[in-house]
């Protein structure tokens, strides 16, 4: 399946991966107001690496990712969990959304919030899970 | 009070570190904690005796009416004092008893955890909190009984205790929920103070039975008493603490606690008195048959627990008075007796009374203490046990409802006098007899003697000054159990009356029985076959039944055929949902819908793709067709303005196709293994589901059961959750807890897939050395135990049954191929059955290559 020399796929994969990753971050951040969100963004990000995986194989993809997919799952669940607790400090029930708007110079407002942290958690958990399965399957195939 | 419980758990937590430095002296250090708590609780005696109830509130999950509120009244104070007081000496005792034991560390941790749980149990005001502590005591008890886990008997006894108490715990949970429904609250105080009567509630009978099951299993009542004597496999400090003074009284505690609201009915009286009396008699009778010191004590504990239940069942004021006194008396002398039995075992090397004798010369202090404690057990003045026993007899004469209870109690008290005499006299008097040499037997260190000395002294003091013990300790407890202020007092001398006569009679009869004890025991052996058919047989039968049912249902339901699972799930769904649907709603046929041309087109593509997927003979084709179905559905989502769903659907479809392509080549080649009949059946099942789903959708459009929640969500999405994308707001804000759960599930699923692929590369059992070590460090399996392929196992099985000669590997293989091509289900297991069924030559080649790979030994 991973035949060397498919020039178009090689070239396309190299350029599409960063674009798709960028797009996934875009989807993640705009998710609260427009179509998007952590789940979709996570799928897009794994789609990016899936393409790369098909083109260059598991080892190269692992190299490119730098982070083990299992760790990505861990990071995701960790973000998910830490978004649970801030509400406690305000005396509210667990998981109540907390918002910390920050005004940047130039009039841009950034809204930090626990739902955002939570969404990032979902993003990583989905991303990690899909990549874990894909890479494992590919590696089994390459054996 | 919450702090008191917490402190004990903290002590358990730091024990391992302290142990590294102080070894067995850690126990002496740790004893400070319960000792300090005893003093703290003792400081509350005057307050509680004056009729106050101390309540420390602490919210836990207010939304579910669950709190950590703790209440200190007469009953919980008495228990708290016993738990911490006896606990102090037990910890000291354990320090010396298990000195040098490699696992003393672990023992102390579990013992302290138990202490905290038990204290939490008696202080908790909330039923759910009480239940949590209740289960914690079961679990810590399990760990403590099974402490000597090298012995099979200890493991078995631990498991038995756990299963019996936890099964009862389940019933208890059901009872608690019913009680909370009837009483209107989970708070015990609120239930007790509420004006509406629980006893007249419709749930009363069911609730009572469930609660009693919980209490009876925990407190070793007949017919669940068998686990307690078996639990004597635990080290002696555990027996002395858990299985006499504290944990087994948890059930009794619960009944006593709920007695003001639940008690007083005919049902309560009959059940509790009958089972109490039966337990009393069973305990006393079985004790008479035993020769092991700890078994003797264990059965006499069963007897005491029966007595307490009986007193609760009688339920008069006098009985309540007797209950509190008996509970205190029993804890004092039984804790001491167990510790003393442990000393005898430790020093003389045996617990069999028939192997012991004449030890009083070598263990004088132990002998005296045992004698005094046994006097209390037998109920002889001036010990506190006598006061309690007189009250028992008085309460019985005044309140018991049936003659057989009298008979059982009197016979039981005769037996128990004999048992007390056996314990006090046999090991210490007569000719010297012991497995150890006489020179080696000497008094134990003071840490082991401290407990018995203090407890026996308290027994004596309380017996001599019963008014004092009554006023400060048992009277407040009595009031708490009775629910009202009880007018009564404890006294050593009640005058010459019927109870005193009965005491005298049972004393004389008991001593006569002691004289002929050896002969009686021999004669009682006749009954052995009947006893072997006792309740414990029921337990074993029950365990066998569990295994049998598990095996049966695994063979029936979990037979490994994927299609079978799917069919079962789908048919159950169709059956239940379809029934509800047809019996409750009417379907309105509404064909008056306007559709656009492009919608019909999309539908056409959808149907065409679905049909292709189900009739195609190429796997790749099927995958592609399924992808087509998915993308068309995504199109439908987008057409009906759900872009989020559409995007998600497209992405999921894409990844699914990628995943399928990856696994495709690992599957066996495409072959038709099902008969026409099976295919028709499967098609029928699939059609039924389709029809049902169509009906369901029509109903949902038609019937509006309640105001949809989506209106609220749409309205508040921006003002409350600061987001305009409602789907996302639902996912990360409104329903964040669900999503949190889902990502955990997702992560687990991914781990499962990973484990399946990574740790089973050759699809042969045992092929990989690191199986099951996803988290733990790799465990080395010796080379000889590793099986490299299925064929090897098969070969071994055939050789075992003498079907083929050893080494006839090829013949086996052929046999296997023949069997596999006949096999109807489980195509995954027969990759070599590919001849003649291929329609894609590449696929066949691929699987042949794989087969070749598998045959090589790795």
TrEMBL record, chain A:
One GO cellular component term, please give it. Answer: plasma membrane
The UniProt record lists the Na+/H+ antiporter MnhB subunit-related protein domain at 8-131
Q: Does the keyword Membrane apply?
A: yes
Q: Any idea which UniProt keywords this protein has? A: Cell membrane, Membrane, Transmembrane, Transmembrane helix
Q: Which domain of life is it from?
A: Bacteria
Membrane topology annotation:
Multi-pass membrane protein
Name the major location. membrane
User: Which compartments is it annotated to reside in?
Assistant: Cell membrane
Q: Which InterPro entries is this protein grouped with? A: CPA3_antiporter_subunitB (IPR050622), MnhB (IPR007182)
Spans traversing the lipid bilayer? 7-27, 39-60, 72-89, 116-137
| Family as reported in the entry's similarity comment | Belongs to the CPA3 antiporters (TC 2.A.63) subunit B family.
Check the record and name the PANTHER family matching this protein: NA(+)/H(+) ANTIPORTER SUBUNIT B, NA(+)_H(+) ANTIPORTER SUBUNIT B
What's the protein here called? Na(+)/H(+) antiporter subunit B
UniProtKB/TrEMBL annotation, chain B:
What sections of the protein cross the membrane? 6-21, 28-55, 75-95, 107-124, 130-147, 159-181, 201-217, 268-289, 296-314, 320-344, 365-388, 400-425, 446-473, 493-514, 565-582, 594-613, 620-640, 646-665, 685-706, 739-757
Broad class of where this protein is predominantly found: membrane
Tell me a GO biological process for this protein: monoatomic ion transport
Superkingdom, natural source = Bacteria
Q: Where is the composition biased (Acidic residues)?
A: 837-846
Q: Where is this region: Disordered?
A: 813-858
Which GO cellular component term is one of those annotated? plasma membrane
**Compartmental location:** Cell membrane; Membrane
| Ranges for domain NADH-Ubiquinone oxidoreductase (complex I) chain 5 N-terminal | 62-107
* Pfam families linked to this entry: MbhD, MbhE, Proton_antipo_M, Proton_antipo_N
Keywords from the UniProt entry:
Antiport, Cell membrane, Ion transport, Membrane, Transmembrane, Transmembrane helix, Transport
Q: Which residues form the MrpA C-terminal/MbhD domain?
A: 605-668
The membrane topology of this protein is:
Multi-pass membrane protein
Q: Where is the MrpA C-terminal/MbhE domain?
A: 679-761
Identification of the protein by name = Na(+)/H(+) antiporter subunit A
The species this protein was found in: Aliidiomarina haloalkalitolerans
